[in-house]
């Protein structure tokens, strides 16, 4: 029982990081129906930005979080502006290819600058608490707390603000929305910025939790969050969160039972299975059938 | 004359919305049947059901005496039901000849292995397909455009190519979805003569969806009127023209019944 | 047909096979002449292998217009299957006999794996199919990492060097010949029709399921062949050699050379192989250039150099006799 509770905390920790990244994939897919393959690498850069920041000025955790989120938000907007916007009316395949290319450019540039994995310095005093045999650290509380907090903020933004309304409108019908005078380009840019900021935050949190940062993280962790988004139903925010926690739980269980090298195998097999039986994910709605 | 095509209680719903409701019509062998009705009456949905693009929610479709419900669209096409589309759907990037050959090829027996190894058998089929397609294109005076991209043809030639492509399937039944869309009355009357010639030359049965009433009246042996997916009238053109229900349905929307 | 036409036809008919056989003889004696050093031979073999990969991926991504990122996965299956044969099962068999069989089996294993992916493509298109191929790639790679028999993540060592210039040339020619035949056949036109308009293709009697299956199985078969050649060129394979970057490399070749083009595949494979060789001194930074090239291509020339076009000498000739009498007969009857 204690063991299970302990594993549940681990799953929550991993799941909430996945959820932050998965939301970025899902938001972009929602407004542009485009897979932003580069998002995993934005997440990875979030961790590197944090390393860089601490190397220059040792800042407290909260400040680092804000700076990193700002930096990745700028990066996300730049990618959208210069790589994706010119292709918005091109065939869908062109956009996917570009996204894949952008991601690999970011990844390999980082690899060129920092060929080896780097340790992440401590940003916080990590205190371990014991509750009737279950250990939980300050770090875990902060990771889960920050993630859930950010998700609540995002939920509020999407549901209650005019930006959120515009975003949802674009998701349902981009052509008409432009005619109605909604500034589609701005809304899309802000969507990318938001998604990237969440990804950056996830990068920082991941770096703190598993204190090694490497260029391959964009694929090994970032794409896993993409898997989570697809499992939940890409384009659907709640689906992304659900998929992320589900995947987190599955991975933690896998590692508990099998060698950790089976993680990817299990995660991608799960993805394939879900796509076979629920082609649009757990909560996704199929697009209107067009003949 | 026996029925070539029959629908029995054909029903199709889209998310609770009934596009076609309990429709039972029959198409006699060799006739030209017109299907008219206001916009959104479900005419194109009916074609999509007949050709197998959508499965019906309920009901059965009989073609040449056998049930074709649930068959793959390509299977139905090879059984002899060809169609054109309301908004021309040619393979735009491919050549005119390739467009026609794609339809003709579907009737050719040639295994993938034969094709990959270009066996004598496959070569024979290739030759047959080129010759027959060329012959058809020449017949419809598209012979000088065989190498052109289908998307580069003029609007009228694209409409004609779509019909040629459908004929390359060697169909017994031809479904035409608004072939006169975007044409002026005199072009539509030319098309009428053209379609009659095609009908006689290839001994076809034709089902036609059309809004040009003059053309429908001149061309069709019989007319079925549908509104909101339900058949509201049917019969000889002159009877349909006088039917109060039809006039009402049309006056409500277009009011241009001649 | 007049006499001049006939002679031109016969001439051109026998020229290609003669050239191809001559090429085989040249490539067979090339290493012994001492004219080309080992490095140059390595580059030539790489071009041939990449050309096989490129044209086979082009079948799915170019002619069919789908987006598969799983090509490296099929390649891995071919590489491992053939290497297991030559290293583990029959290390003592005469290579001249074993190698062609090993390559064929490598192709068949990859081709078999293409069947489920092809079946999944019946209902799934576009983004979702891309995700499926991505999942396939990751499953193959992480699956291989967990098989101790093939060395797990460390990979298989000590593979005999059996891929000669002549073998690479031979398989390259076979691949191009088969894919050319396929593309200019009923199935190839059906595959192109799926790209243009899947619904219209079905309505015109194209069995899109068969066509998709043929495309995926053929494509993955030749990816497996290329993988087998690759394994016996490098003499060492590990799962991370077949990651997303390998797929990207092939994607760059396809979209640089030109989609739906045999000649483009040749150009793309040659260009990218030579480019990567030239960029060797850059080390890791080399891996920035290829994806960046891909992005620039998409932004400025999405069709590649030869998109949807081909050189005439690569197209098969079909002779046909126009029936002039029909023309005359139709003219009186048809309405313009």
Structure characterization notes:
The complex is a heterotrimer of chains A (291), B (258) and C (336). With 291 residues, chain A is mainly alpha-helical. Chain A is 74% helix and 4% strand. Chain A is built from eleven helices and four strands. In chain A, the strands form two sheets. A two-stranded antiparallel sheet of chain A has the order 1-4. The longest helix of chain A is centred in the first third of the chain and has 31 residues, at 2-32. Chain B is of the alpha/beta class. Chain B has two domains: 1-80 and 171-258, 3-Layer(aba) Sandwich (Rossmann fold); 91-170, no CATH class. Chain B contains ten helices and eleven strands. In chain B, the strands form two sheets. Chain B has a six-stranded mixed sheet with strand order 7-8-9-4-10-11, with helices on both faces. In chain B, strands 1, 2, 3, 5 and 6 form a five-stranded antiparallel sheet that branches. In chain B, helix 3 packs across helix 5. The radius of gyration of chain B is 19 Å and the shape is globular. Chain C contains 13 helices and no strands. The A-C interface holds A 33-35, 83, 86-87, 90-98, 100-105, 108-109, 111-112, 115, 219, 223, 227, 230, 259, 261-265, 268-269, 271-272, 275-276, 279, 291 and C 61, 65-67, 69, 120, 123-124, 126-128, 130-132, 134-136, 138-139, 141-143, 145-146, 152-153, 199, 244-245, 248, 251, 255, 283-285, 287-288, 290-292, 294-295, 298-299, 302.
Identify the notable features of this structure and list them briefly.
heterotrimer; A: 291 residues; mainly alpha; two-stranded antiparallel sheet; 74% helix; B: 258 residues; Rossmann fold; 5-stranded antiparallel β-sheet; 11 strands; 40% helix; 23% strand
Write the layout of secondary structure elements.
The complex is a heterotrimer of chains A (291), B (258) and C (336).
Chain A lengths: L1 H31 L6 H18 L4 H24 L7 H22 L4 E2 L8 E4 L2 E4 H23 L1 H11 L1 H6 L4 H26 L2 E2 L3 H16 L4 H21 L4 H16 L14
Antiparallel strand pairs in A: 1-4, 2-3
Chain B lengths: L2 E12 L2 E7 L2 E3 L3 E5 L6 H8 L7 E6 L2 E2 L5 H6 L2 E3 L12 H10 L6 H6 L2 H20 L15 H13 L5 E5 L7 H17 L3 E5 L3 H7 L2 E6 L2 E6 L1 H6 L1 H10 L5
Parallel strand pairs in B: 4-9, 4-10, 7-8, 8-9
Antiparallel strand pairs in B: 1-2, 1-3, 1-5, 5-6, 10-11
Helix pairs in contact in B: 3-5, 3-6, 7-8
Chain C lengths: L2 H31 L4 H26 L7 H19 L5 H26 L5 H20 L19 H19 L2 H11 L1 H6 L4 H27 L9 H14 L4 H17 L7 H15 L23 H10 L3
């Amino acid at each position: 029982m204690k063991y299970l509770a302990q594993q549940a905390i681990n799953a929550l920790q991993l799941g909430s990081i996945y959820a932050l990244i998965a939301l970025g994939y899902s938001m972009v897919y929602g407004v542009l129906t485009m897979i932003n393959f580069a998002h995993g690498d934005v997440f990875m850069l979030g961790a590197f930005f944090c390393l860089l920041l601490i190397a220059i000025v040792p800042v407290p955790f909260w400040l680092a979080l804000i700076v990193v989120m700002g930096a990745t938000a700028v990066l996300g907007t730049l990618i959208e502006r210069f790589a994706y916007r010119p292709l918005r009316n091109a065939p869908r395949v062109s956009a996917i290819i570009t996204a894949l290319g952008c991601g690999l450019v970011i990844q390999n540039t980082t690899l060129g600058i920092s060929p080896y994995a780097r340790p992440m310095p401590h940003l916080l005093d990590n205190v371990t608490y014991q509750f009737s045999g279950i250990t939980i650290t300050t770090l875990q509380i902060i990771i889960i707390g920050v993630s859930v907090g950010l998700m609540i903020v995002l939920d509020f933004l999407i549901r209650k603000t005019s930006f959120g309304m515009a975003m949802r409108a674009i998701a349902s019908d981009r052509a008409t929305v432009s005619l109605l005078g909604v500034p589609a380009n701005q809304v899309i840019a802000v969507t990318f910025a938001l998604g990237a900021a969440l990804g950056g935050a996830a990068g920082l949190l991941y770096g703190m939790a598993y204190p090694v940062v490497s260029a391959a993280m964009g694929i090994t962790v970032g794409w896993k969050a993409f898997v989570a988004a697809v499992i939940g139903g890409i384009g659907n925010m709640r689906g992304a969160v659900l998929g992320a926690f589900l995947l987190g739980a599955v991975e933690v269980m896998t590692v508990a039972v099998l060698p950790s090298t089976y993680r990817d195998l299990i995660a991608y097999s799960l993805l394939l299975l879900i796509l076979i039986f629920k082609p649009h994910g757990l909560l996704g709605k199929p697009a209107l059938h067009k003949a | 004359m026996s029925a070539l095509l029959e629908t029995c209680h054909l029903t199709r719903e889209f998310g609770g919305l009934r596009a076609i409701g309990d429709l039972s019509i029959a198409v006699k062998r060799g006739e030209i049947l017109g299907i008219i009705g206001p916009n959104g009456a479900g005419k194109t949905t009916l074609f999509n059901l007949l050709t197998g693009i959508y499965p019906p929610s309920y009901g059965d479709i009989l073609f040449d005496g056998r049930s074709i419900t649930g068959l793959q669209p390509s299977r139905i096409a090879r059984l002899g039901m060809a169609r054109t589309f309301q908004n021309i759907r040619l393979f735009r990037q491919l050549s005119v000849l390739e467009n026609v050959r794609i339809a003709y090829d579907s009737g050719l027996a040639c295994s993938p292995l034969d094709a990959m190894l270009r066996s004598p058998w496959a070569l024979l089929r290739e030759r047959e397909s080129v010759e027959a397609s060329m012959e058809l294109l020449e017949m419809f005076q598209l012979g000088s455009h065989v190498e052109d991209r289908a998307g580069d043809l003029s609007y009228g030639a694209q409409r004609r190519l779509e019909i040629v492509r459908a004929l390359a399937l060697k169909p017994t039944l031809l479904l035409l979805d608004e072939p006169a869309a975007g044409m002026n009355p005199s072009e539509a009357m030319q098309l009428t003569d053209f379609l009659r010639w095609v009908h006689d030359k290839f001994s076809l049965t034709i089902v036609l969806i059309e809004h040009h009433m003059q053309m429908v009246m001149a061309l069709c042996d019989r007319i079925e009127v549908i509104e909101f997916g339900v058949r509201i009238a049917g019969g000889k053109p002159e009877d349909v023209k006088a039917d109060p229900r039809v006039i009402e349905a049309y006056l409500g929307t277009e009011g241009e019944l001649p | 047909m007049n006499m001049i036409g006939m002679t031109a036809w016969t001439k051109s008919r026998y020229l290609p096979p003669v050239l191809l056989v001559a090429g085989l003889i040249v490539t067979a004696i090339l290493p012994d002449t001492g004219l080309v050093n080992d490095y140059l031979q390595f580059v030539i073999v790489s071009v041939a292998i990449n050309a096989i990969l490129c044209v086979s991926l082009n079948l799915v991504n170019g002619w069919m217009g789908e987006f598969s990122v799983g090509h490296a996965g099929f390649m891995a299956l071919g590489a491992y299957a053939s290497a297991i044969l030559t290293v583990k099962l029959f290390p003592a068999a005469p290579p001249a006999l074993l190698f062609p069989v090993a390559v064929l089996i490598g192709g068949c294993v990859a081709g078999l794996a293409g069947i489920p992916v092809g079946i999944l493509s019946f209902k799934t298109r576009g983004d979702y199919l891309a995700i499926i191929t991505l999942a396939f790639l990751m499953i193959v790679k992480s699956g291989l990492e967990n098989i101790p028999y093939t060395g797990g993540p460390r990979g298989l060592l000590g593979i005999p060097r059996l891929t000669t210039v002549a073998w690479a040339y031979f398989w390259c020619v076979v691949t191009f010949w088969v894919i050319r035949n396929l593309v200019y056949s009923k199935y190839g036109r059906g595959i192109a029709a799926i790209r243009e308009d899947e619904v219209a293709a079905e309505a015109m009697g194209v069995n899109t399921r068969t066509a998709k299956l043929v495309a995926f199985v053929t494509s993955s078969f030749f990816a497996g062949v290329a993988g087998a050649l690759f394994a016996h060129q490098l003499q060492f394979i590990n799962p991370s050699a077949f990651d997303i970057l390998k797929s990207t490399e092939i994607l760059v070749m396809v979209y640089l050379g030109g989609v739906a083009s045999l000649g483009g595949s040749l150009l793309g494979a040659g260009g990218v192989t030579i480019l990567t060789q030239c960029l060797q001194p850059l080390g890791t930074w080399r891996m920035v250039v290829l994806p960046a090239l891909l992005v620039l291509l998409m932004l400025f020339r999405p069709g590649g150099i030869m998109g949807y076009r081909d050189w005439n000498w690569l197209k098969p000739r079909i002779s046909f006799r126009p029936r002039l009498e029909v023309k005359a007969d139709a003219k009186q009857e048809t309405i313009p």
